[in-house]
């Protein structure tokens, strides 16, 4: 796929979309690490919204995540059969279908400085420097580190591929490869220009189906959960914002993809975008400040410090310093064919006034009206107050269990909550989907929900007494 986009050029909001199939800004989940200011806060998803993996588990899939979560909320016990550094599809029951996620960290932004002294697999003199960077040894070295990290990641993926192939399961498994945000360098990660939101995406179907084909359709991260459910033959829920790219529920081709940015760690901004197959429109709600934000974490990167030093000395050219300048433009329009680096703002060019009006109108009707009416006027504090009334984290109701015809039944809660259970001797929480045969006691039950405290536990003892 050549046109896959995340709706926020940073990881945690992107992962919210990847696990729920929903636009992060629409749900108040667009602020990088929702608990940055309040360690107890986590995003509360709207009623009925669950991790899509729960529906795979309910259908019999063994679901594992190795190992990063960081979804803007603590992972509900209902989401995964296993989540951690040892989680693996190999642990699935024999002949059970599986869904497994492996998060490779070698290309993370932090690896630019952490791997700075490691062996380079790319010659710094041969990298192609984008025009918005100064072309010097510091920039070239960090870019070479980035490409070398990609080589390391490729080798790690190769090991996972070989492991699957050697197991004999390769040709009965669909492989999907993607990044959770755009490039890790400055003016890429955290941006809603193409450099920050356009991501690699590849899919391998069994037995060479569609091998070598290129899909140029516009797609977003919210489409990935919908696609996985569709390929598994499951219903794509109505509260998922995405649409399936393949499978029995394949949707229509998108006309637009969208983006929004808010807070990145300690720095705040508010920008949003719409993009069709050629043009990118950006609305800046905080145009009194520069698009560049002095994120402390990113300032550990040598080339970030170098670019900032050159800007302060007046040694960057007009293209290179624009990112740092304030005030910034309230509207931006880019021709992504003619200007793939999104450098030339056409918003004030009279030759593009009709395109500007078209994109502005689509932005309001397709992005703001459908998904982000609340986001436009809300601050992060507004979302926090709404999710945690009176500053109190909500808690799930305690499940009610009963014995019925020799079966242990958990009475239905509404669809907002999920029921999990385990034995006292096993730490693994199972998803409750149907009445259980009462062959042994010592069962623990509780309910969970995204952003909520788990309920109190119900204990079933050896005598089948419900406590």
Protein described:
- With 467 residues, the chain is an alpha+beta fold.
- It is built from eleven helices and 19 strands.
- Strands 9-10-11-12 form a four-stranded antiparallel β-sheet, with helices on one face. A four-stranded antiparallel β-sheet has the order 16-15-18-19. A three-stranded mixed β-sheet has the order 6-1-8.
- A hairpin with a 6-residue loop joins β15 (418-423) and β16.
- The longest helix has 30 residues, at 137-166.
- The protein is globular, with a radius of gyration of 24 Å.
- 38% of the residues are buried.
SSE map:
Elements: E1 4-5, H1 11-20, H2 53-58, E2 62-66, E3 82-83, E4 98-102, H3 111-114, H4 137-166, E5 175-178, H5 194-197, E6 198-199, E7 201-204, E8 219-220, H6 223-231, E9 257-264, E10 267-275, E11 279-284, H7 302-312, H8 318-321, E12 331-335, H9 353-371, H10 373-377, H11 380-387, E13 401-404, E14 407-410, E15 418-423, E16 430-431, E17 436-437, E18 443-448, E19 458-460
Parallel strand pairs: 1-8, 2-3, 2-4
Antiparallel strand pairs: 1-6, 5-7, 9-10, 10-11, 11-12, 13-14, 14-17, 15-16, 15-18, 18-19
Helix pairs in contact: 4-7
